[in-house]
Amino acid sequence: MSGVEKELRKLPGVDRLLHHPALEPLRAEHGARAVADAIRALLDQWRARVRAGESTPPPEAWPELVAQHLARHGRPLLRPAINATGVIVHTNLGRAPLSPQALDAVAQVARGYSNLEYDLESGTRGSRHVHAQTLLRELTGAEDALVVNNNAAAVYLVLAGLCQGREVIISRGQLVEIGGGFRIPDVLRQSGARLVEVGTTNRTHLRDYTAAIGPETAAIMRVHASNFRQIGFVIAPALEELVALARQASPPSGERILVIDDLGSGTLIDTRDFGLAPEPTVQESLAAGADLVTFSGDKLLGGPQAGIVLGRTPLIERLRRHPMARALRVDKMTLAALEATLQAYRRGRALEEIPVWRMIAASPQELRRRAARWRRWLARHQIAAVLLPGESAVGGGSLPGETLPTTLLALESPEPEALAARLRQADPPVIARIRQDRLLLDPRTVLPEQERDLLAQLRRVCTDSP
User: Fold this and answer.
1) Spatial distance between the Cα atoms of 322 and 434, rounded to a whole number of angstroms
2) Are 453 and 82 spatial neighbours (Cβ–Cβ below 8 Å)?
3) 98-353 has which fold?
4) Phi and psi angles of residue 447, each rounded to the nearest 5 degrees, phi first
5) Among 282, 266, 338, 284, which Cα is nearest to 306's?
């Protein structure tokens, strides 16, 4: 018998290990089937390791190995993470974190029943569409509002509900593709509307729109280039010009040509107040005369994933009655979080309560103090770090190329990629960035309540070498 065969014979049987007294708490917590599955998977791993030359673990080590396997593989796939990248609206990390008030609102409606579709005054069936409607109208000046599950859905519903079978005019410079391969021309085709391209990639004149308008024109659509920027020899008509053209070209009788403004991210706050480039606000689009404005709830608004449509009441009412409105509707938790987020704007406390705006508004001095506090804590545990000037990004397809000054905590390592990988495997995972063989952590995007976990994980990975 070979040495490998002898080692393989030392591996315990599934049934014997399953009924080990030390595993009784695990059987009670996870169930016998889950523990047995973990044991089988663990034994398969060790068979491969033994054949590769390793020795079988001693008998007393197996209960702990099973416990570790269950802990590692029993964790939810979707887990909280610490964003130390400095990208505020990080698409891969869930975009906008919700405010404590929004989280409380979600918990309140999720733990029991709610008046989601029940009119408390009449005692009869109500509509989920009324929730957040009043606040959106009040904050933006819109006649009416509709909430669906994301901005792509909002754009699709507007085109399918109001432009199907007819032409929609868009500048070639606005036929954009955003994350995940989402392309405006594809959405138009799926909605049943017919795309009419005008102008060139970098220059589209008002006369180009004028020449394209015909009896089949349903709308002129402006799409905000939220994830890239054109500079140099570029021209495009202002939204007010498109509105005036649509009104002038509309037939005296029948449906008028619509102006649809897809803002993508969408903001209620002037970004110029924070040293950033101007991002068109929702209020400005409506004041310019756009018939319908669409934007996201989970980017610069700072709320849950949602798509918001604002505009004239007759148009919004047609969208509410469209068959796709039910397929694209949002649930009670999204509505609760959105309403709580909008309440922060109503109280004038968006900069204090909404994490995205709190991060944008954070001063360079505040960020340097936080980074310095982290460095002092690490120094007390014999971990060297330095402070470096750096830049944070808004992210999430908002304000491309725009950055905010920050102070970075930098850890030097001979293997920064390995250090970053170990942080990603932590609980909670820590996501950082690497530059010039340094692991960089930006305090702007680390929530205050996550600081203790961040420092604990840094200490663990920097002092417990693999």
Assistant:
1) 48
2) yes
3) Aspartate Aminotransferase; domain 2 (3.40.640)
4) -65, 145
5) 338
Neighbours of 67 (CB within 10 A): 16
Domain 82-91+357-463 CATH class label: alpha beta
- d(CA 229, CA 165) in angstroms, rounded, equals 32
Range(s) within the chain of domains with CATH label 3.90.1150.110? 82-91+357-463
Query: Read out DSSP for 122-185?
Result: TTEE--GGGTTHHHHHHHH--SEEEEESSHHHHHHHHHHHHSTTSEEEEEGGG--EEGGGEEHH
Nearest Cα neighbor of 372 from 295, 443, 269 is: 443
CA distance 411 to 385: 5
pLDDT band at 315 (very low <50, low <70, confident <90, very high): very high
Residues forming CATH 3.40.640.10 domain(s) in the chain: 98-353
3-state secondary structure of 348: coil
Task: Provide the terminal-to-terminal Cα distance of the chain, rounded to the nearest Å.
Answer: 35
Type of residue found at 159: L
Give dist(CA 305, CA 328) in Å, integer: 12
CA angle 150, 135, 157 (to 5 degrees): 30
CB atoms within 10 A of CB 123: 8
- Give every strand in the sheet of 438-441, ordered side by side: 386-395, 398-412, 438-441, 433-435
DSSP-assigned letter for residue 87: B
pLDDT tens digit sequence for 181-220: 668 888 888 899 999 999 988 899 999 999 999 999 999 9
Task: Give the residue among 318, 295, 291 at the shortest CA–CA distance from 306.
Answer: 295
pTM greater than the 0.85 cutoff: yes
CA distance 292 to 242: 13
